[in-house]
């Protein structure tokens, strides 16, 4: 299982995005009740606490979890149940050959495979190794505490 951040071009466009690869070719991936299931097994999540997260509209309270994909642990955020319930086009799928299913770590505030589909193998450019810039779109400032974070 790939459990690192990857950069890729969405649908062959020149828009680079960084997302976490969670589904490999032929994997059965489900996303329900804010939990990923890969081939029927839930991905382990450990609750870390609540924190404030700046969204473009306002600051919101999110729940922070440590999630483990394979041997790799990383932090994710979700909004409390009932606060935000988007409809996903891809929430119970089989990943096609030569394609991948990717998710953002801010699960309720991320454009990813749940909305626009799979990422082709040919569009993956590489692996992200650290956060080099993080911009707060609400307060219009650099988020210094995130710079240098290694995913």
Structural commentary:
The chain is globular. The longest helix has 4 residues, at 113-116. It has one helix at 113-116; strands at 5-9, 16-23, 28-32, 35-38, 41-42, 45-54, 59-69, 72-78, 92-94, 99-103, 119-120, 124-127, 135-136, 141-142. The protein has a domain at 5-44 and 88-146: Umud Fragment, subunit A (Ribbon), CATH 2.10.109.10. A 5-stranded antiparallel beta sheet has the order 11-10-2-1-12, with no helix packed on it. A 4-stranded antiparallel beta sheet has the order 5-4-3-9, with no helix packed on it. A 3-stranded antiparallel beta sheet has the order 6-7-8, with no helix packed on it. 3% of the residues lie in helices and 46% in strands. It has 1 helix and 14 strands, in the order ββββββββββαββββ. With 151 residues, the protein is an all-beta fold. It starts with a strand and ends in a 9-residue tail after the last strand.
Taking the sheet with the most strands, its summary is: 5 strands, antiparallel
Distance between the termini: 16 Å
Please indicate the percent range of residues in DSSP E strands (runs of 2 or more).
over 45%
Question: Which architecture of the domain at 5-44 and 88-146 per CATH?
Answer: Ribbon
The first-level CATH class of the domain at 5-44 and 88-146 is given as: Mainly Beta
List keywords for this structure.
four-stranded antiparallel beta sheet; Umud Fragment, subunit A; five-stranded antiparallel beta sheet; mainly beta; globular; single chain; 14 strands; 151 residues
């Amino acid at each position: 299982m790939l459990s690192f951040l990857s950069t890729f071009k969405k649908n062959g466009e020149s828009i680079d995005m960084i997302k976490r690869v969670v589904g490999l070719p032929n994997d059965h991936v489900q996303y329900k009740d804010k939990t990923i299931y890969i081939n029927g097994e839930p991905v382990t999540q450990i609750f870390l606490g609540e924190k404030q997260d700046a969204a473009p509209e306002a600051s919101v309270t999110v729940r922070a979890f440590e999630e483990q994909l394979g041997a790799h642990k990383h932090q994710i955020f979700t909004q409390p149940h009932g606060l935000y319930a988007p409809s996903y086009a891809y929430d119970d799928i089989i990943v096609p050959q030569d394609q991948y299913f990717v998710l953002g770590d801010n699960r309720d505030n991320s454009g990813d495979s749940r909305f626009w589909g799979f990422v082709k193998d040919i569009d993956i450019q590489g692996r992200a190794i650290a956060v080099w810039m993080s911009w707060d779109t609400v307060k219009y400032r650099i988020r210094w505490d995130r710079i240098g974070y290694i995913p």
